[in-house]
Write a structure and sequence with these properties.
- By secondary structure, this protein is of the alpha/beta class.
- The protein has one domain: TIM Barrel.
- It has 16 helices and 15 strands.
- The strands form 3 sheets. It has an 8-stranded parallel barrel with strand order 1-2-3-4-5-7-12-13, surrounded by 6 helices. It has a 5-stranded mixed β-sheet with strand order 6-8-11-10-9, covered by helices on one side. A two-stranded antiparallel ribbon has the order 14-15.
- The two termini are 31 Å apart.
- Bound molecules: 6-O-phosphono-beta-D-glucopyranose.
- The site of 6-O-phosphono-beta-D-glucopyranose (BG6) has 14 residues, from loops.
Amino acid sequence: MRHYNDIFKKTDFLWGSATAAYQCEGAWNEDGKGLSEWDWFNHTSKKNINNTDGDIAADFYHHYKQDIDQLVIGHQNTYRMSISWSRIMPDGIGKINTKGLHFYDKVIDYYISKGVEPNISLFHYDLPLTLSEQGGWLNLKLSDYFANYARICFKHFGDRVKLWATINEPHYYSYCTNIVGNYPPSRHLDFQSYFQYQYNLMLASAKAVSEFRKLHIDGKIGVVHDNGNIELANNTKEKSKVREIADLFYNRMILCPALLGELPKEMESVMKLFNVDLYREKNDQEIIKSGKVDFLGLNLYNRQLVTDWHKGETNVFHNNKGEKSATREGIRIKHLFETAYDKNIKRNPWGREENPRVMYTALKEIDKRYQHPMIMITENGVGEYETPDKNGFVEDDERIRITNKFLKYMLKAKSEGVNVRGYYHWSTMDLYSWINGYEKRYGLVRVDFDNNLKRIPKKSFSWYRNFIETYEKE
Ligand code: BG6
């Protein structure tokens, strides 16, 4: 029998990499899987601007052994993945698909047989389509449906899986689905739905945590938040106002319930500024209180640099086209705040800052403000356009250079007492990117999508293996 306590007897730190079901599995309609919202979006919706889909993706469904073997060669001792809800329950509720359970049994058992610790997220964006048709995360029943699905997973896999996360990025997911509109169901600048999504997702997370506790699962459970550490541009006039509103907007709807078991104190007053009236029920506070997590998963790519609103209507700026567009990421919210742009910081082709120092600042700040929580860096990585040489090899020196800095900053925070216990590079191998299909690559291993999905480790793969080895020797 495996025990959670044994994990950190073997090593003081977990090193691995991460993927998500829709982005890597493929097999979109195999072995009884139901449709997810993303299957529908990418097959049917005119709002899908990627012109591609995850039908095959990296075909992890049929290549999982090869991918796991490769990860072991890379000295990684953990792997983060998600379960596709509609593979386990084709309609999100009701009938269970035993073939779906069996697929994840095989994957999990194979990892464990190789000494790799699985870390499983229950939800990474791919909502069963049937539930999306019933109002998605605005439907008040969703949190109970999610808790029910979570309980099924805990009961089935809980003897083997010791690290769980309820939901991947409740904030960023709500942002893309309701403000940007590049994720289904593609609402645009809908702040009411944006905040209601976050609220309902955190209720769902809390209910799943309660199920976990009721079953006395031996393990730890977290939620995964996209770091949106607030920094103010130098010329910001109303410093405390901008900080408070932006922090609530990007972080505190998630971090307060997850880590403190309470809603943010400033929630009511900030909601008024957005003209949002959140739907809540009487015993929600109790649910949130009992839904505190054991650890925070932090997906760390960048910060939020903000300043006072200057002029212009509320608008959002998002680059889904990489070099084909000059747009830089950001938002302007009339009368409240707007994104600031620091000319001195390099940006990637998708208009995002490359700023590894944020790793240190974010870890220190969360540690200080949220009672020294246990943290796992559940994602961190570098998206690039990539051209391999004639043998298919990618010399991804930029990825190495930037990741090396991120890791040094993480270890600096750790050495100063931050309770960070693991790091997952995004991503294990190339896979589907929500914002730029297969053009934007993140993998440590190249997948040749035009040639039988051949796997070829990149230069960063060996670099990461050496980094882990060096850390373990020291
Ligand atoms: C995170 C997600 O937000 O960022 C991943 O959890 C995602 O699923 C990653 O792939 C990188 O984002 P993108 O949009 O560049 O692929």
